[in-house]
Structures are given as structure tokens and as C-alpha cells.
Specification:
The protein is an alpha+beta fold and 288 residues long. The protein contains eight helices and twelve strands. The chain has a six-stranded antiparallel beta sheet, with helices on both faces. The longest helix is centred in the middle third of the chain and has 23 residues, at 145-167.
């Protein structure tokens, strides 16, 4: 029986250490049913993006996709293909002296922009389902708004630094392209360059997409011939080795579980954590 290690990283950030554990589409869907969205600062992300716009250091979509797929496997296929081209769901563990707090984190593109969307995992039995679609204010003692900004800045810097390492070895990059029909964005890597452009004219946009498809093949993730590492893990009967961040136990111990038992154990653990946690005050806003 094959043993695989779940793609993950632990970051020793100055304000608080945190870990990212890649989730499969199935796991993400199950956890999303028991989580509520956390209000962020959209203007902060816009300012962060504009601060490096049109500079060699700009963190563009092709660079982000390249780094995330190299570090965490292929993008989720559960995306709105009219408005986006990638989505990476993670279990985020925030480590503080008062405890470890668990969130979902989605790093994704949406209509040409990069987004970091947070969701607080809760016990759906103790928290009414209808409230899970309400956007809530950050929970100060767990992850405040300023700490969310810090987290995004840290991940932004990580993605930027990793993409710069790729740029030093361009021959290792396989040419690719993606397109976002809702906003006529085309991006990718070809002819030795990272490219991201918006084409206003519909006919010109469609012609460019056809030309690139003829050159590189269909850009849809589902049509690529490379196997999705995460999907492989779900569909195969395998044993997954995970570190004991999610469990009560010695940090050096490892537990081997199938994905089903992994999810069951984690949910049980989260239920125990939630029983002692503080419920936030909801703020009505748009559903995600």
C-alpha cells in the first residue's frame, strides 16, 4: 500500500506560527458546510496589488499559479470556469499561546484578481446552518483583522519570493496559458516570459484564445494530461501520513489514516475545540 505525505507547510512568522495543509475538493466541501466566512479588507488587497503594478517584481497570476501548483499540487477543479482559473483550498492552523485556531483558507483568482478568503470552522450542530452563510467580523482573540492583513502580507511575500526563484531558472518552466472569459484576461508563460493581459475587444480576445489553444492545447485544467496529485489521493486506496498538529498528542508522533478516518478524527477534535470557544457576533453581508 502506497504512503503519501499530504502537501503542507509550517511558517514561523514573527507574530504567530501557522500551518497550511492542502485539502482535497471533497474535504473542502465537507468543511465548508461547517464554516462561516470571515470579513476581510478588500481595499487592503487592492492597495497591495497596485503597489507593485507594472514592475518586474509584480506578483502576477501566472507566477502565483506556478508556485502553488509546485508546492501543493494541481489546482482544484471545482471552480467557476467563467470567472476564475484556479482555487487552492487549505486547512489553516493558527498557533497562539491561548490555543490553535482552525480556519479554511482559499487562495484563488476571481475575475483577474488574487484573493485570500477565510472561513472559521465551527460545529454545525451547535451553530445553525443558516448562520454559516453570514459574513462575520474577525474574532479578535483568534485572528483579528490586523492579523489577517499580516497573514496575507506574509503569504504574498512567500509567493513573491518563490516566484522569483522560478524566474532564475526559466528553462524549468513548461509553457502554459489560462483565460478568464468574464473579463477577457489571458495569462501564462510562453516565449520565455510571464504574460498577463486584458483584451477589451471580444473578437480579438477569442482569436487570441484560439491561437494559444492551437499552440499549447486546451487550457482547461480538466483537459491537462498531468495527473492531479490531490485527486489521486482521494481515488486510490492509500494510507496518508499526517503530522499530529490536528490531534492531542506528541508533536513528533505521526498518525496513519485513510482520508475518511482522517476527516472523522479531525471533525471530532474540532467539535471538542469548538465547545470551549467563543461564538462571534454575526454581521450580515453577501454570501460566499
Amino acid at each position: 500500500m502506497q504512503t503519501l505525505t499530504r502537501p503542507h507547510h509550517r511558517f514561523n512568522a514573527n507574530q504567530f506560527p501557522f500551518s497550511l495543509w492542502r485539502l482535497s475538493d471533497e474535504e473542502y466541501s465537507q468543511f465548508r458546510l461547517r464554516s462561516f466566512p470571515i470579513q476581510g479588507d478588500s481595499f487592503f488587497l487592492i492597495k497591495l496589488s497596485l503597489s507593485q503594478q507594472n514592475t518586474p517584481e509584480e506578483l502576477t497570476l501566472p507566477k502565483v499559479l506556478l508556485v502553488l501548483e509546485d508546492e501543493f499540487g494541481r489546482s482544484s477543479t471545482s471552480i467557476d470556469t467563467y470567472k476564475q482559473t484556479f482555487l487552492f483550498p487549505f486547512l489553516l492552523a493558527i498557533e497562539k499561546p491561548s490555543g490553535t485556531f482552525y480556519h479554511l483558507l482559499r487562495i484563488e483568482d476571481y475575475r483577474g484578481g488574487l484573493e485570500f478568503n477565510l472561513f472559521r470552522i465551527v460545529d454545525e450542530i451547535k451553530y445553525a446552518q443558516e448562520k454559516l452563510e453570514i459574513v462575520h467580523q474577525p474574532i479578535e482573540e483568534e485572528l483579528s483583522l490586523e492579523e489577517i492583513k499580516y497573514l496575507i502580507c506574509y503569504l504574498w511575500g512567500y509567493l513573491k519570493g518563490s516566484s522569483e526563484a522560478f524566474c532564475k531558472s526559466p528553462t524549468a518552466i513548461t509553457p502554459f496559458f489560462r483565460h478568464v472569459d468574464s473579463i477577457h484576461v489571458i495569462y501564462g508563460y510562453w516565449d520565455g516570459k510571464f504574460i498577463e493581459e486584458v483584451i477589451d475587444d471580444t473578437d480579438e480576445y477569442q482569436r487570441k484564445v484560439r491561437d494559444l489553444e492551437a499552440r499549447f492545447g486546451e487550457s482547461s485544467i480538466s483537459n491537462e494530461n498531468k495527473v492531479l496529485r490531490i485527486r489521486e489521493m482521494i481515488e486510490s486506496t492509500i494510507t496518508v501520513t499526517t503530522k499530529s498538529h490536528f490531534y492531542n498528542g506528541n508533536e513528533n508522533n505521526k498518525m496513519e489514516n485513510t482520508f475518511a478516518s482522517y476527516h472523522s478524527n479531525l471533525v471530532t477534535f474540532l467539535d471538542q475545540k469548538w465547545a470551549a470557544s467563543v461564538k462571534p457576533k454575526p454581521m450580515r453581508s453577501r454570501s460566499l
